[in-house]
Amino acid sequence: MIRRMLVAALAAIAVSPAALAQGALEKRDVHIAVGGKAALYYLPLTIAEQRGYFKDEGLNVKISDFAGGSQALRAVVGGSADVVSGAFEHTINMQAKKQAMQAFVLQGRAPQISIGVATAKAKDVHSAKDLKGMKVGVSAPGSSTNMMLNYFLAKDGLKPSDVAVVGAGTGAGAIAALKSGQVDAMSNVDPVMTKLEQDGSVKIIADLRTMKGTEAVLGGPMPAASLYAPVEYIKANPNTVQALTNAMVRALKWIQTASPQELLATVPESYLLGDKALYLFSFNNIRDSISPDGYIPEAGAKTALKVVSSFSNEVKPAEIRLDQTYTNDFVKRANQKYK
């Protein structure tokens, strides 16, 4: 009996030394919902998964992939998933709906989204106003690609309803939708947009893939992909959330120094769209927009509120408590662990 108890104790230590170091995990099994996991927008999540960083923290993480961030959010709201890997601005939208969500680690410090018009129609498009009446592809209605499109339209006085939004995903389906004429324009992420650009199929009219481009379009930094969850979940599972954050920060730091060969060896083959050179080119396009440390900047949160409130009647800036939409407490501890 004593021997069996000793074996069980040693097994627990072997499974999760990290969890024991920071306190027992409230939950080992965590279900993350993501919208378009193959996109570079979610590269840190993929790295943490593929390199075993979640397992190193004692976690058994299941990742479910949806067509877009809005659908991933619905999975968590509906209770079928625990955490969203999605755009930070959803936390603002949800607070306006009286549902408390909080981001706890940042993946991208720029939206990594670009908007382009099919080359055949580009000669007639000189500003956002010229998109009126067009069919525009996005990853999924209500997703961050849709929200960036809405902001781009609002800057020129248009309403979201002035275009027809079509959900196209973030992979080969999006490329096919534009090339086949199902949509006239596209708001999407890389490597999709870079592929369309290199093929001569699209003319980029708004580019938020870099920090510089984001500043030019939005007037400030803009937090993008993050891990966020209901506030109740975070309060009930602080050690689990810390373990998730540790794994993500470790992935972010790995990306900063990884060679092209290491990146290609880690990312699933199916994410490369059949073209390794294209993937690396796309990665270099967005590399500076990947967070180096996971911190969510206050200035970025303010930009996100400005963007969302520009086209949403539900989001009233005076009623939003930005300090409740994110926390850097977990990131601070993760950075102390992975310096």
Summarize this structure briefly.
The chain is of the alpha/beta class and 339 residues long. It has 17 helices and 10 strands.
Based on the model shown, name its key terms:
globular; single chain; five-stranded mixed β-sheet; alpha/beta; 339 residues
Give structural notes.
The radius of gyration is 20 Å and the shape is globular. It has 2 domains: 2-110 and 222-337, D-Maltodextrin-Binding Protein, domain 2 (3-Layer(aba) Sandwich), CATH 3.40.190; 113-208, D-Maltodextrin-Binding Protein, domain 2 (3-Layer(aba) Sandwich), CATH 3.40.190. The N and C termini lie far apart (43 Å). The strands form 2 sheets. It has a 5-stranded mixed beta sheet with strand order 2-1-3-10-4, sandwiched between helices. The chain has a 5-stranded mixed beta sheet with strand order 7-6-8-5-9, sandwiched between helices. Helix 9 packs parallel to helix 10 (192-198) and helix 13 crosses helix 17 (329-337). The protein has helices at residues 2-15, 17-22, 43-50, 53-56, 69-77, 89-96, 119-122, 144-155, 172-179, 192-198, 211-218, 231-236, 238-257, 260-266, 276-286, 298-309, 329-337; strands at 29-35, 60-66, 83-87, 101-106, 113-118, 135-138, 164-167, 185-189, 202-208, 225-230. With 339 residues, it is of the alpha/beta class. The protein has 17 helices and 10 strands. The longest helix is centred in the last third of the chain and has 20 residues, at 238-257. Helix 8 links the parallel strand 6 and strand 7.
